[in-house]
Amino acid sequence: EPALNEVIKLLQANPSWAMVVAGHTDNVGAQAANLSLSRDRAQSVIAWLSAHGVAGARLVPAGFGDTRPIAENQDEAGRQKNRRVDLVKLY
Q: In Å, how far from its chain's centre is CA 38?
C-alpha cells in the first residue's frame, strides 16, 4: 500500500501520464495459469488505484506470466522477486 500511495502522488502530479500495469509471476505452475494470475495481479492494482481516485482510463493492464523474470526461479527468494507488478509510463 505505501508504494501504491506513492504512485497516486506521482499520477496526481502528472495528470497527462498513462501507465501500463504489468503483472508477473514466477515459473511455478502451468504457463496458462501463470498468465491468468499475472493479468489478475495487474487488474487488482488497477482496481485499488481506481478506488483511490485514479482514473481507470489512465491505466492499461497487461499480464506477462513468467516470461519476464528479474531473478532466478531456483529458490524462493528469486521466485518472490518475480511475483510482482511493474508500472511503466506510456506517455
A: 8
pTM value is 0.92
pLDDT at 91 over 90: no
For 17, the grid coordinates are 501520464
Phi-psi region of 90 (alpha: psi -120 to 50; beta: other; left: phi over 0): alpha
Which CB contacts under 8 angstroms, 24+ apart, belong to 72-78?
Answer: 73/26, 73/27, 73/28, 78/26
Cα-to-chain-centroid distance, residue 10: 16
* Euclidean distance between CA atoms 35 and 85, whole angstroms: 13
* Contact (CB, 8 A) for 62 and 46: no
| Alpha-carbon distances, residue 63 vs 12, 15, 21, 40, 76 (angstroms) | 25, 24, 8, 8, 21
